[in-house]
Every structure is written in C-alpha cells, then in structure tokens.
Amino acid sequence: MANVTTAQLFEEPFDADEYIERLAWRTPGGGSKGGAEAFDPKKLLEEFVNHIEELKLLDERIQRKVEKLEQQCHREAKEFAHKVQDLQRSNQVAFQHFQELDEHISYVATKVCHLGDQLEGVNTPRQRAVEAQRLMTYFNEFLDGELRSDVFNNPEKIKEAADIIQKLHLIAQELPFDRFSDVKAKIASKYHDLERQLIQEFTAAQRRGEIGRMREVAAVLLHFKGYAHCVDVYIKQCQEAHVKERLDETRNSDVEQYLKNLYDLYTRTTALAAKLSDFNLGSDKHTFLSKLIKNIFSCYLESYIDMERQYLQSRSGMILQRFYDSKNHHKRSVGTGSIQELKERIRQRTNLPLGPSIDTHGETFLSQEVVVNLLQETRHAFERCNKLSDPADLPKNAFSIFLLLVEYLCVDHIDYALEIGLSAIPSADAKNANLYFLDVVQQANTIFHLFDKQFNDHLMPLISSSPKLTECLHKKKEVIEQMEVKLDTGIDRTLNCMIGQMKHILVTEQKKTDFKPEDENNVMIQYTTACSKVCAYVSKQVKRVRRSMDGKNVDTVLTELGVRFHRLIHEHLQQFSYSSMGGMLAICDVAEYRRSAKDFRVPLVLQLFDTLHALCNLLVVAPDNLKQVCSGEQLTNLDRNLLHAFVQLRVDYRSARLARHFS
C-alpha cells in the first residue's frame, strides 16, 4: 500500500515542494489547517522517517533492475555483432561466385560471337551469290525483252519489284552503252514507271489518310531519285487539302466567311513563302514558290472579285435596309427620268418647292453608324483586293469596289437623305416651320469627311500609278458636285424659310403705333417687341448655322443670311411713318439688330447695319442738319433717292421747312 501511495506521489510532472505537501496532507495530524485531528508534529516526523526508508528501498530495487537490463543489453549486442559478421562472410562468398559466373558468361559470349562471325563469313558470300543469281535472272528477262516474273506483273508486289529495279538500275549504269544500250533503256523505263506508280500510290494513300501505307511507300521511294518529288507532292497535298477544306465548306453558304478565310490563307501562305525564300531553294526559288502558290489558289482567285462585289452589294443593301426598317420608313423611289430631271432644273433655278412638303418629324435619315459599317466593309474589301488581285487587275478591281461605295453610301444613303430633306423644307411663308435641313447638312458634311478619308487612305494607294486614278477622281468630283448642288439648294431654301419666319414675326408683332405713338412723352420701352423676338430668333439660327457648317462654309452661309436679314429689316422699316419719338425707337431697334449682326462675325453684314443705323438718324435729325448728316462718312456714298426715301418716312416731311432743307 505504501509503494502504491509512493508511486502516486511520483506522478508526472514531478515537483518536490508539491510532493512534500501532498505527503503531509495524507498523514493523519499532519495537516496545518483544519481537519478531523489537530496538528501533530511527531506523527508527521514519524511519517517522514518511514517514507524516507521506503524511498531508499525503492531506489535499491530500481537500481538492481537497471543493472539487470544493462547486462541483458550488452549480451544481445554481442550476439547481433556475431550475426553481422556471419552475414558479411556469406556475402563475400556470394560475390566471389558472381564474379566467377560473369567471367564464364563472358567467355561463352566470346565463343558465340566468334562462331557467329565464322557463320556470317560463310553465309554472306552465299547470300550475295544467291542475290546475284536472282538479279541475273531478272536481268535476262530485260535482255530478252519479256518480263515473265510475277514480281513485275503483280501490283501487290510493287515494293519487291521496286527493290529489284533499283538495284538493276545501279548495275545498268556500270555497263558499257554500246553493247547494252537497249537493256539499259528498258531498265530505266521500268525504273521511272515504278517510281511514278509509287508516287501515285503515296498520293492516293495521303488522300485516304492511310499514314501507315504512306510510311511504307516513302521508305521504298527513299532510294529512288524522285524521292524529293514525293516530298513536294506531300507538301502540295497538305496545302490543297487544308485550303480546300476551309474554303469549300463556306463558298456557297457563307460568302463573308469565305472571303475572310481566303484572305487569311493566302496572306499566311505568301508570308510563309517569303520566309522560305531565305533558304537555299535554287536559283529560281521565287518563281518556284509563286508557281506553287498559284497552283493552290488559282481556282479561287479567278472568281475572287465577282464574289467580293456580290458580297459587298448584298451586305451594303442589308445595312441600309436594316436602318430604314428601324425607322419604320419605306424608302421612296427617287425618279431619274426626264420629268424628274426637269423638276430638278426648275427647282435649282427658281428655288420653288415642286410637290408637297413632307414632315420627317426631325429625322435626317442619315446614320453615322450605317456609314461606319459601310466604310468598314469597303475597307476590308480594299484590303482583300490589294492582296488577292492580280497586279494587272488591281486598279480595275479597286475601282469597281469604289463604285459600289459611291452607289450605296453617296447615292442610296446621302443623296437619298438630301432628297428627303429637300422635300421636307417648308415654304417660305410657312408659320412656325421646323428647319431640319441644317441637321442634314451637318451630318452629310461629317459623313463626306469620312468618305474622303477612306478615298485617300485606302483607294489612292491602289490606283495612284494607273490610268484608273483619273476615272476615280472624276467620279469623286461628279459625286461631290451633285451633292453640293442639293446642299446649296436646301440651304438657300432654308434661309428663305428663316427670313419668312422673321417676316412673320414682324408682321404679327410690329404695330404702326410703335413708331408713331399717341403719347410722345410716355414711351417707356428700349426697343419694340417685334425687334426683341426677331433678334432672339436670329441668334438661335446663327448658332444653328455654326453648328451645322464648317470651314469657309460658315462665313458664306452667314453672309448670305445676314444680307437677307438686312434687306428684310430695311424693307420693313420703309413701311412705317415715324414721329420724332418713333424715329428714336426705330434707331433703338436697329441698334439691337446691329448687336445681333455682330454674332455673324461678318464685316459686310455689320457694315450694312451700320449704314442702316445711320439712315435711321435721318428720321430724327433736325431739319437744319439734314444736309450735314447726309454728307457724313456713312451716307455720303449712298444714292440720294435712298436718302430721300428715308426722309419721306418722317411725319413732318410735308412741312415746307423740311422739304426746303432736303431739296
């Protein structure tokens, strides 16, 4: 029980202080705090003494056990060492036996090789003699002129026949020509015939995809002179099979993909040929490579431009139709007959709207997306044309593509939109007219810049050194002039509408009492309502013109609008009579008109309104100063009748004093 207790006190992890504490706690009367019995030091000392004796006995037992285990370990180590020594001796004996066996095997192998050499020395001459006899037999058949052996008549034995004829061909080359010319010719004929059959068999096997058969035939052809031709056939077949597979499957079903595949394959093939030309392929390597490429692609290149034009027509028509369908617009037919031409001439010369005006609801029927798609398709066509066309046909083919671009972009899209825009321009006397033609002008200008850029970037390099350049430039000039005529006509009619709107404002807003008020001393306005509304309208239209035009066209159109604006105001002012205060108000109106004229940024227009402003001074100047004012810098060069006409607008003109001063 004491041993068990002691073992429990030695539980890991061991701590000496805790060990003593636990021993004291277990001893009756040994506890220091509480408990059933009071603290008894004697019992505790007695317990400690007994426990020490127990520990000594435990130590002795453990020591004896350790010594016993050490003795057992030493004994087993000696036994293991003896076993290892015995194994080493056995291994050494086995190694010696292996060396003896290896030497014996080497001796036997030497004997066998020697015997084999002796047998080969005997068999080789015999085989050669048999082979020579066999070749002599076949040679006699050629000498007799009759090939009786089955090997030459059985197509299944072409491999064996090729081996025989190749050897006979080598032998025949060593024979004198004068005695064996006939047999040499027969052997050579058979040699070339078999060579041709083997190449045909190789080609047929390649088409069937029989790789094993191709390998067998190539191994036989390796010893023939035409082996290089076999390589050429293999390369050509690989290219033709690949090209045929990629092109034929889309030629009738997907023309777009067919053209892309043709361009891609031809481009990659020519690039490969350029790399191959760096190698030593003979003096005529460029001719050889060009001929090879032509043989592969000739059947496709012959019909290229027809398919290109067919695709471009179909694709361009679809792009346009899809656009008009999205607008729910059924495209109107634009006549080209004599009546239509007559109408066009009349409209250009008289500026009359022939036929009813249509309402497009602000739609220009021009789309930059459509234009980009058409130009992109044409650009791809030009790129393919440059690569796939014969150099002699390149300018002609490029010109035919350009004509399609003109047809679908310039005629079917831009020109059609101009026709619709012209038809939508209201008459000059229309009220609250929406003028969308300037939007058409703006988009048409943007589109034509894109068209011109493609002409210079993609078409010019293809035709710049050919007679087709003149035709292209003439066609482009013709198209530009036709569109400019319609643009000018539309802009002119639009300006008339603007002037008509201004006139309508003046007619409805300007009152006779504005310039001849009933109460001369109670005029509180700076300028009339009609003037305010006209100036606001003019400012809006000037901004619109600047937004729609570019370059010199802005100044040209604004000059024309400014001149017409001045003429309208000039004629308008001559319809009224002016009192002294009314004349001042007219001067204020003209000053406001002149302020609007500054927005034009056209010196001529501003000068015209400066002159008009000076004329209006004649409405208010004192009679004694009329001659002085008329001889001023701005009025001195004007027609006297014009000056007189303005003076007559004064309400006091009929007074004798005023008439006398102006006469």
TrEMBL record:
Domain Exocyst complex component Sec10 N-terminal: start-end pairs: 41-150
Coiled coil feature spans: 52-79
KW Coiled coil (keyword) present: yes
GO CC, one annotated term: exocyst
Transmembrane intervals: none
Tagged with keyword 4Fe-4S: no
Exocyst complex component Sec10-like alpha-helical bundle domain location: 160-239, 241-662
This protein's UniProt keywords: Coiled coil, Exocytosis, Transport
Biological process per Gene Ontology, one example term: Golgi to plasma membrane transport
Family: Belongs to the SEC10 family.
Protein name (Swiss-Prot/TrEMBL): Exocyst complex component 5
Organism: Cyprinus carpio carpio
